[in-house]
């Protein structure tokens, strides 16, 4: 698959200087986030179908996501092309399955995420947990390879004075551009998109911040910090409270309750 050892417990566990093998870093640590997203992408489709809002305007956030994602698509396609050009020929390093399937798997995943950017905008989905978790996993699991690539590059510089641009040097440069774009996407996904133009419920100035909070803000309850701080400084009054979520209002809850209640009474 990689032309090198997939797993070596002597390098990873029974050593004072632990490290994963390059093959493990370029397969498991990259394909695991991709597999996670393909497995749970059904939730993103559910969010689109269940959304009650529509038409988020183009803004700096979703445009930035689209541009960075396009950059990842171009870089991944370039990895595949460079692998086919630089490897497998006379006097060149051999072409392995990883050089072909690695970029293809990443390209397919990035393309799927790219398609959701206009779809989320159209259907009013301001934030998605699946995409945030994907970029989080991809960023964190790429960190071990950062160390490996830097150490390998330093070793190459010490052992060789050849100024020709080799495949290893291309891989080093490509990975750090990839890692930079991945970090940018993680940062961008920490924020929720803009307010949709069309909504089922009227959204007022005193609406509960949870409605427009990002996934990260929701799982950490950061959106509630303002209320907690205000209650810490002064006793809360009724005027300080946010409006109830429309989905939790009596006009929405009572018909559902009455339907099941009447069924059971009959």
From TrEMBL:
Keywords: Membrane, Transmembrane, Transmembrane helix. The keyword DNA damage does not apply. It is found in: Membrane. It comes from the Eukaryota. The chain crosses the membrane at residues 28-47, 67-85, 100-120, 132-150, 170-192. It is a multi-pass membrane protein. InterPro entries: TMD0_ABC. GO terms for cellular component: membrane. Its main location: membrane. Pfam families: TMD0_ABC. The keyword Ion transport does not apply. Residues 16-151 form the ABC transporter TMD0 domain. This is MRP1. It comes from Drosophila bipectinata (Fruit fly).
């Amino acid at each position: 698959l990689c032309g090198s050892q997939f797993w070596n417990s002597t390098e990873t566990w029974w050593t004072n200087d632990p490290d994963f093998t390059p093959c493990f870093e370029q397969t498991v640590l990259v394909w695991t986030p991709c597999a996670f997203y393909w497995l749970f992408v059904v939730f993103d489709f559910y969010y689109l179908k269940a959304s009650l809002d529509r038409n988020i305007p183009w803004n700096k956030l979703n445009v930035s996501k689209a541009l960075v994602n396009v950059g990842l698509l171009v870089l991944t396609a370039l990895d595949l092309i460079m692998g086919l050009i630089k490897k497998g020929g006379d006097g060149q390093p051999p072409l392995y399955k990883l050089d072909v399937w690695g970029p293809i798997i990443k390209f397919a995943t990035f393309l799927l995420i790219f398609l959701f950017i206009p779809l989320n905008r159209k259907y009013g989905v301001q934030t998605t947990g699946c995409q945030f978790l994907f970029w989080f996993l991809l960023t964190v699991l790429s960190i071990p390879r950062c160390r490996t690539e830097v150490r390998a590059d330093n070793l190459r510089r010490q052992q060789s004075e050849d100024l020709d641009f080799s495949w290893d040097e291309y891989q080093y440069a490509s990975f750090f551009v990839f890692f930079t774009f991945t970090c940018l996407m993680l940062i961008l996904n920490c924020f929720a998109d803009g307010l949709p133009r069309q909504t089922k419920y009227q959204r007022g100035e005193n609406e509960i911040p949870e409605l427009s909070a990002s996934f990260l803000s929701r799982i950490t309850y950061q959106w509630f910090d303002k209320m907690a701080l205000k209650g810490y400084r002064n006793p809360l009054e009724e005027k300080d409270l946010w409006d109830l979520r429309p989905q939790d209002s009596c006009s929405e809850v009572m018909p559902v309750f009455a339907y099941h209640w009447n069924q059971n009474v009959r």
